[in-house]
## 1
Amino acid sequence: MKTSIFIITILIILTTSLAKHHACNKNDEKALFQIKKSLGDPDIFGSWQNTLDCCEWDYVICSNGRVTQFTIAGNMISGQIPFAISKLTHLNMLIITRTNVSGPVPSFLSKLTNLNYLDLSYNNLTGSIPESFGRLSRNTQHIHLSYNRLTGNVPKSLGYLNFTTIDFSGNQLTGDLSIFFGRNKTIEIARFSENNFEFNLSDMEFPETLSYLDLNHNKIYGSVPATLARLYLAYLNVSYNRLCGKIPQGGDMQKFDKTSYFHNKCLCGLPLPAC
Ligand SMILES: *[C@@H]1O[C@H](CO)[C@@H](O)[C@H](O)[C@H]1NC(C)=O
Ligand SMILES: *[C@@H]1O[C@H](CO)[C@@H](O)[C@H](O)[C@H]1NC(C)=O
Ligand SMILES: *[C@@H]1O[C@H](CO)[C@@H](O)[C@H](O)[C@H]1NC(C)=O
Ligand SMILES: *[C@@H]1O[C@H](CO)[C@@H](O)[C@H](O)[C@H]1NC(C)=O
Ligand SMILES: *[C@@H]1O[C@H](CO)[C@@H](O)[C@H](O)[C@H]1NC(C)=O
Ligand SMILES: *[C@@H]1O[C@H](CO)[C@@H](O)[C@H](O)[C@H]1NC(C)=O
């Protein structure tokens, strides 16, 4: 009697733990092995062995046996971002940051229809932002490409999308940023500092959702639009551009100190000296 209760208890424990644990999907495992191989099988993938379920491997997180998150931060991996990442079809978060990956921002990322969060900042990526990013999934809300060596115009096709966070700072990107703004957009955090953006800011319209706008160190001209004073801004920095004219008075505009506005062509009015 005691033994049968013991066996039943064991069975219950086993079945409940099996139900919770979904084995890693075979296609995902195959894609991960391809990723490891194309990065030259570096030491950091030591746990990526077929003796271990791939949901237990370092740098990945699964949900129901599918790889949903892939994060490499601060490891010295080199080479291009592997194509096999596009085969992780359930990926919703991809972070590769502060590594030595080089080559282009891969256009195949637009195939990842579940991707919500993309962070490729602080790498050694070159070339321009691919036109295919205009076909990124509507699910892609957060895009960080900051501190790489990206050049060229930001593709106009990105303007058809609705992002929550965009961080393109610290590249050599050019073009007009008005495609990301406008009343119907949903952008909240916009970081475009330290690039070569050159456009007239005067007539730009901003959505009510915007709370963080960093445009410092570009070649932006025109004036600071009065529409900005109608927003609830937590952060604003338009310093080191070619702006002119009076800073709009009111709203949150004077909440920021002069370093948010200094080093422009002829901006004036509080918190800068009077016009
Ligand atoms: C970036 O790539 C260049 C050229 O391939 C290389 O010289 C440089 O060391 C790389 N940067 C880093 C941080 O490794
Ligand atoms: C970074 O990548 C470049 C190009 O692949 C390579 O020449 C360089 O040796 C790498 N640097 C390090 C520190 O791995
Ligand atoms: C923005 O929304 C308004 C209505 O709220 C609409 O009339 C207008 O066409 C929209 N503009 C764009 C660019 O989607
Ligand atoms: C962005 O999202 C808002 C709110 O959901 C919507 O009204 C607007 O039309 C969208 N704009 C674009 C360009 O998709
Ligand atoms: C920027 O646009 C405003 C409004 O359309 C215009 O008055 C101004 O002359 C433009 N500034 C420059 C430098 O082109
Ligand atoms: C704005 O950016 C400039 C340039 O990077 C910096 O010196 C200044 O401290 C920034 N101001 C604020 C309020 O962050």
## 2
Amino acid sequence: MASFSFFASILLIFLSVSWIFNACNASSQGGVGFSMNLIHKDSPRSPHYQPSLTSKDRVRAMIDRSFSRVRYLSSIFSARGGGGDVAGISNSPASAPAPAPASASASAPASDSNVYSKVIAGDGDYIMELEIGTPPVKIMASADTGSDLIWIQCQPCEDCYNQTDPIFDPRKSSTFNGSVSCNDDICQALPYKTCSSQNTCQYEYEYGDLSVTSGTLSKDTFTFSSDSNKKLQVQGNSSSSSIPGIAFGCSYNSKGTFEANEDGLIGLGGGHASLVRQLDSSINGKFSYCLVPYKENASSTLNLGDNAVVNGPGVVTVPMINGLYDTFYTLQFTSVDLGKHNIPVPRGLSTQMIVDSGTTLTFIPLELLVLVMDDLSKIVNLNETNDPEGSLQLCYSYSSKAPAYPFPDITFNFGNSSRLVLSAMQTFIFIADDIVCLAMAETMGGMGFSVFGNIAQQNLHVGYDLHNKSISFAPANCSTFKI
Ligand SMILES: *[C@@H]1O[C@H](CO)[C@@H](O)[C@H](O)[C@H]1NC(C)=O
Ligand SMILES: *[C@@H]1O[C@H](CO)[C@@H](O)[C@H](O)[C@H]1NC(C)=O
Ligand SMILES: *[C@@H]1O[C@H](CO)[C@@H](O)[C@H](O)[C@H]1NC(C)=O
Ligand SMILES: *[C@@H]1O[C@H](CO)[C@@H](O)[C@H](O)[C@H]1NC(C)=O
Ligand SMILES: *[C@@H]1O[C@H](CO)[C@@H](O)[C@H](O)[C@H]1NC(C)=O
Ligand SMILES: *[C@@H]1O[C@H](CO)[C@@H](O)[C@H](O)[C@H]1NC(C)=O
Ligand SMILES: *[C@@H]1O[C@H](CO)[C@@H](O)[C@H](O)[C@H]1NC(C)=O
Ligand SMILES: *[C@@H]1O[C@H](CO)[C@@H](O)[C@H](O)[C@H]1NC(C)=O
């Protein structure tokens, strides 16, 4: 029942207006756009980068992360009791969630009465940098399109994980507000919260691997600014954009598998508490990213506002549908083309697909994956081999030094002639110097949606328009991407 009221409140909030920017000053209004670096955790630019690892180890780590992320997403779905749109049968999204099943909650602590609150520790493949407070303090955090809450570790810590950067001390910020009331809309939108005796909002977030972070919902000024090392473009007059009153979690207690190089997590999901929803009118409901192929030594970009307008040759704009959760950006796909052969999503399978920057592989239903693999086997004239770890289903012996990829384009069709054509670079991944595999896997455990992962999104400028409720994709060279 707790989960029911949570979803009911999310829905009400979703329908209500952009209250927060009534209080915002004008500095950020009117055609503002800014961009910042988004760094792949396994790229040479990442603070996580371990030079001693081989590229094989890195790819394996990415693949493993991707499976654990999707395992978690799947547990959310079963908690929700299935439903959604399936091929040939169009249902409206379920309006009342089912309680968490025993399977998802068996080993979880008490707060798991709402499985939705779980996200994965070290969530996603990308980290971003921004500044919080006055004077501004630099924060490095996971950028996650699969969750909403923004949180960082704060002093005084009761129990913090080891963090490389100094831990944010709110007492040194003149604009910090640590007493956000329980009636605040953002507090209301949080899945697992309690009210202190002073009526301030306390939250607890539990992750898929049972890592937990908890603290006080707070507000402070966020600054997206230039920095000598970070090539950042701000359109308009100023070199930085400060936005007051952004709600985030000040975590005083975090346990689990958090990474020392991350000060917290920036939720970029579609739910009310996320950074992009809070910035909503300042950024005209728009954000985008351009993901550099993970092996390249260049930073990806995250763009907000006017910089996030995706257009130009080859742009494909697809309407978002109301998916199972506000958090997930959901599209509906109808079929996959291999070369000229069209493979519709088999009848009865879900056509919902979430676009996620934090999942490495693309996950589609097994029945569809098998058809895609059958077609590839017929077209591709290479010797098949096995993934030694058994994670990926279709691999070939092929040298990563070979000049061209002998693989057909794979096209995702989103209906109404919206065709997103992916080249081999976006659909195959070298797991060793001489083994290349299809970067796709099957959805798990009756998961109600497919996941469009970040290998598939490499070298595309992917723009989310929350007002127009659409996602646009345009071919780009993200290594040299400029607004
Ligand atoms: C990545 O590029 C930067 C400069 O753009 C360079 O300083 C650094 O050595 C490069 N790292 C690797 C591992 O190539
Ligand atoms: C944190 O780092 C300190 C110093 O490097 C070390 O002594 C301590 O054991 C670490 N704590 C944890 C929980 O890893
Ligand atoms: C902190 O934010 C709350 C709104 O949640 C507001 O009522 C309160 O006045 C603010 N406090 C300060 C010191 O600005
Ligand atoms: C914009 O830039 C001009 C020239 O650099 C400066 O005179 C003006 O004060 C700036 N306006 C704002 C709002 O920063
Ligand atoms: C809004 O979304 C629709 C698809 O739902 C698309 O056709 C249209 O181009 C989009 N408009 C803008 C301004 O992006
Ligand atoms: C496939 O394997 C056979 C036997 O090892 C070899 O002769 C042939 O050249 C291989 N074909 C390709 C396309 O690599
Ligand atoms: C195709 O366009 C029509 C009218 O714009 C819209 O109602 C329908 O939902 C679209 N179908 C898909 C699969 O996007
Ligand atoms: C992108 O641009 C870089 C630098 O010019 C170049 O090395 C790379 O090959 C380009 N990538 C693609 C996919 O065109």
## 3
Amino acid sequence: MSDARTEELRSRLANLHARITHAAEASGRSPSAVTLVVVTKTWPVVDLRRLFDLGVRDLGENRHQEAETKATELAGLGISWHFVGQVQSNKAARIATYADVVHSVDSVRVAERLNAGADQADRLVSCLVQVSLDVGEHHPGDRGGVAPAQVDEVAAVVSGAGRLRLAGVMAVAPRDVEPARAFERLTSISSAIQAVHPDATWMSAGMTGDFEAAISAGATHVRVGSAILGERPLLR
Ligand SMILES: *Cc1c(COP(=O)(O)O)cnc(C)c1O
């Protein structure tokens, strides 16, 4: 496909990769240590096909219904599907039938349901424990995730589940904290988890507004939507 939209996506992707390279090198990291997950929520499948044609293989979605429809339509292409939204426990088993990575495991119950779904579908699903970095009196849980004190417990359940692989931790920076400070906190939680689970090396952090700060803090996966696809329509 070669049309104006494809060219727009091509140039925004190139720009994004340049910014990732710059941020990684500025903090002494290899750019290849950072995976770009392009978050395509709300955008039509035709845009996902364009991204695939441009070489993108990691796509992120945050709503089960939409994610399932897109994954079904694009099955067999070798795309890695990243589920980044809140997992409702009654949808978890379904999500485990198409998601390769779930970034947002935020309870023991969700972990158990994902494992049951993965088992039934004969699949292995990589999981990140989503950590809430909201502090103090501000709306706890505002951006989702488990409290830092509960990360160990959820990580242990994921690690012990036969069909789940504990890959690491994920967070969304709270609105009222400087992203660099929030991500430093996530880095220390990530280190603590790796002390117990050495393979849990992934740290999913950073979106359009703060991915460079996340890379400086050690993010291995950045989740970027609007810097590549444009502003989402205000549907949701
Ligand atoms: C939508 C979304 C993103 C991407 O956000 P942008 O600001 O558009 O880059 C990343 N992570 C999660 C969890 C999201 O829901």
## 4
Amino acid sequence: MPDTGPVDLRSDTLTRPTAPMRAAMAAADVGDDVYGEDPTVNALQDHVAEMFGHEAALFVPSGIMGNQIGVRLLVRPGQELLCDADAHVITYEQGAAAAHGGITTRTWSGEGGRLDPRDVERMLRPGGWHTVVTAAVAVEQTHNRGGGTVQSLAALRQVRESTARHGIAVHCDGARIWNASIATGVPFAEYGALFDTVSVCLSKGLGAPVGSLLISSAERIAEARTLRARLGGAMRQVGILAAAGRYALEHHVQRLADDHRRARRLAEILGVDPAGVETNLVMVDVPDARVFTEKAATEGVYVTPFGPTRARLVTHLGVDDADTERAGAILARLAGR
Ligand SMILES: *Cc1c(COP(=O)(O)O)cnc(C)c1O
């Protein structure tokens, strides 16, 4: 019998832990992580730091906390952070950099979220008594609002070089950096080498219920522990969650290629230019996004309106080939394709 349950394409955060992931959580060896005594957390932190070629990592409850601690390690109050105008760090984080860190921001506008190193270079103001000091640049890999755009290694390297000349740091919001690596074959450590701090999410396409990590030097991560505690983000027997993350890293990274294939298939069915679908996000232009979203929902396909005439579809662990075909057919009809 065909599966006719709803197909939820709103976000890759909607995944639920699988049975074997839950089993790994239940079996996790735990301790008090505020004391630094949770072996599962410690092992995950070491493992992820090593994956990205850094000395240390810190488990945090959310990607926002990872970003915000990362940025505060690099930018002092009154200094500035440069980022894309559509970056998560200034769009969805409730002004945290300003509210908690006294950080000002200046933005560039990348087409489709794509990083152009010349935009960044033009904006750098390394110091002096008269202008705000640019202390760090934040890049997003992949770019969420841009539609899962992958920043090229060449562009990232150029940003690294121009900022390094002025002693300016680089933070990577790598919530979906896993997708970038799977889409391009660039190893995690090669990305990691280009950034002073990296935040990564276990709770997006990897399918863990909770958790992110901030990756950096041992010295910075020691300071990050203090900032995490100050934000109330230090947790106790959190190995239960770290075990889900470890399971996800072992079993759900390679399969992101399936999400990318299904996203391209949705694009094909919907007549969306496949060149714009680099990972697991598909942006589809429709006459009225709100009407499109509501009608799709009544037919059991959930999507997110992204502006007045655009909807976002996200493939993930909970969407298989049959779901893709069925949702694609419904959405194509509603979009008049
Ligand atoms: C989801 C996301 C985050 C933050 O994630 P939360 O865990 O929801 O706080 C950060 N950056 C990007 C690009 C994201 O997509």
